[in-house]
Every structure is written in structure tokens, then in C-alpha cells.
Amino acid sequence: MTSENKTWESSKAEYLRQVEKALSSVKHPSKKEVLEDVCSHLDRRFAELKSDEQSWENFQAIITEMGPASDYAELLESDATTPAGGTWQKYVWWVTLTASVIVIAIVLLTLAIFPKISEADRIDAEGLSSKGWQLWQERKLVEAEDIFKQAIQKDKANANAWNGLGWSQFNQGKPLNAMVSFEKCLKIQPEHPAALNGLGWIAKEQGKVNEAIDYWNKAVAAAPGTTAALHGLATTYMEMEQYDKAVYVYQRWLAVEPNNAQVKADLKRAKSRKPVVELSDLPGLITELSDPNAPRFQALNRIIKLGSAAVPTLIKEMKTSDNWQIPKALGAIADQRAVLPLIEKLEKSDHPPMPQVIGEALERITGQKFGTSKEQWRKWWEEHQQEK
Question: If DSSP states are collapsed to H, E and C, what string results for 292-329?
């Protein structure tokens, strides 16, 4: 039994105890039937919840909508002198009325959250979302986040905009904001593969590996061609040394991209039970960073996985390369040896997104918040060296 089921069972049991206690003060032949019906209704409401909706807050919402336990006793007690059928009809009427009120409340709440919008606003939101994704591709993440927010102001039910907002926030290193955006996307489109994939990577960063795997499996179930989620599953299984599962995922990936040479090589590694990436792979991965036909961020993630062993080669490559993914990798690895080379690269870089990426990398390594200011980074470095 999962922890969610345990939490629900304890909540249900406590409510049933309250109902039973309330009914104990009433002398009526229908007490047992009322208790059984309450239990049945609780089970039915729980079964209606999807796995990602099974939370303590939703459990309490179900209990709340059932009403105070004392109400059931009052329903029977108010007509204790009449035949059981009459009281039972009152009870059924009360339950039906309550259910109707709940449905109306849900409809009104939905209208409040997603009010009717004009066709012009809907079209504007789609245009803004397209612009947001273009900015995201160009690594202009702050601008992309702002544009996606504008799209949502136009149309709060635009799942594409919520997903874009989540990714622009996640790539800026704001996972908690991104989590909220992805979850709102899923409330609109519960099987949105990109949002599920995003929640998977957030869970992975938080060390919640099993939760990440669950999100990625849902993403792949919703869209079997979601290679980003397949990548998450495969590399995670490789890291866990669950090679048989990794083989299965790589085979599914090849069914989507049969000519992907890297996936073929990774499948071979999985079958031979070897790590997904080794230091000898670094030159090829650096070359892949500039390959427009390579899967997005795949080489970058593999380089980051190599850790500090890759730093000297990356520093050397960064001196002559304008590929922003190299400083991105150095920032993710967070090795102090990269600080001065990154500052020197920043001083020579004027075209986005390179300055922004270097600023983010330096902030991650040092904890300082100087953004893209060349002067502040250089001053800090000189003072920092003197302190040593």
C-alpha cells in the first residue's frame, strides 16, 4: 500500500468513526445502511482521483464535501417516529442535493479560474506562446518567461503557455516556480508529456528518483515519441545500474529514432553493463554540442555527468569556442578551476546568450550575484585572490 493510500485510509476511518459515534445516539433501523452508504461514497470519490491528485488536501476536500458527521444523525433523528422508508428518502434527497451543490460549485470555480475569453485573446495568447518558445530556443530565458506570463494573462487555459513558462523557469534554475507552472499545465491537460517530463527532471534534481521515473513513464505513456522522457528514464536506470530496464528503454527510443547513433552506442553499453558515458567520450561529445541534428541537450547532460574530470578539456575548448553549452556545463559541474577562465570568457563575449550563461555559471560556482557585469566579476576575483 502506498503512503497516499495509507493517508486516505486513515482519513476515511476517522470520518467513519465520527459518523458511527453520531449515529449511536439515534434509535433508527437505517443506521447501518447510512454508515455503509457513507463508506461506499467515500470509496467512490477516492477512486475518481487520478494518481497525481491523491494528496492530503484533496482527501480533506472529499471529507469536507460529505458534511459534518452529526448531520447524518440529525437526518434520522428528525423523523425517528416515521417509517424507515420516509427518513431514508430524506437522507437520499439530502445526499442528492449535496452532490448537486458540489457540482455547481465546481462549475463556478472552473469558470472563475478559466473565465470565458474572446477569440482575439486566444489568438494573441497563441502568438505570444510562439514568441516565448522562440526566445527560449535563443536562450533568452528571462524574456521568454515574461512573454509566457503575458500569454497566460490573455488565456489562463493555454496549456502551451504554462508549459513554456515552466521550462523557462526551470532552465533559469527556479525549479519550485517551474513545478507550479507544470502542475497548472497538467490541470488543463492532465497528460501533457512535456510538463510531465519537466516534473520528472525536477524530481530527479531533488533526489526523488522513483517519483521522477513515475513522471517520465506517464510522459511516455501519453506520447511514446517523447525522447526527452526516454532519455531521463534510460540514463537514470544506467546510473542505478538497472541495465535490463535501460536496455528496454533504449530499444523503445530506437523505435522512435532508428538512426540515432548515440542511442545505439548507449544500448550497446547497457547490454555490456558499462557506464553510459566515460572520459574517452568527451571529444566526441564536445563535437556533438555543435551538431544541429543531435538531440537537444543530450551531449550537454552527458558531459555534466563526467564531472570534474572533464573540466580541463572544457576550459581549453571554451577559449576558442562560442558554444554557450560549454560554460553551461562548467557551471553545472561547479569546479572552482573554471572561475577565472569563465570571467576571461565573459570579458570577450558580447553576443547573447553567452554572457547570460557565463553569468549563471559563475553565480552557481561562487554564490555571488553579479549577473553579466564584467567589471564586478573581475573586481571580485582580484579581491578574492588577495584574501587567499
Answer: CCCCCCHHHHHHHHHHHHHHHHHHHHHCCCCCCHHHHH
Q: Are 194 and 167 in contact, with CB atoms under 8 Å apart?
A: yes
The verdict on pTM exceeding 0.90 is no
Q: What's the DSSP call for residue 82?
A: S
The residue whose grid cell reads 509566457 is 148
Residue 270 φ/ψ, nearest 5 degrees: -65, -40
Q: What is the pLDDT of residues 150-162, one digit of tens each?
A: 999 999 999 999 9
CA dihedral sign of residues 47, 50, 54, 55: negative
Sorted by where each begins, the domain ranges of the chain are 3-113, 291-388
The CA radius of gyration of the chain, in Å to the nearest whole number, is 28
Q: How do residues 244-270 score in pLDDT, each as one tens digit?
A: 999 999 999 999 999 998 899 899 989
For residue 84, with 0-12 CB atoms within 10 Å meaning exposed, 13-18 middle and 19 or more buried, which class applies? middle
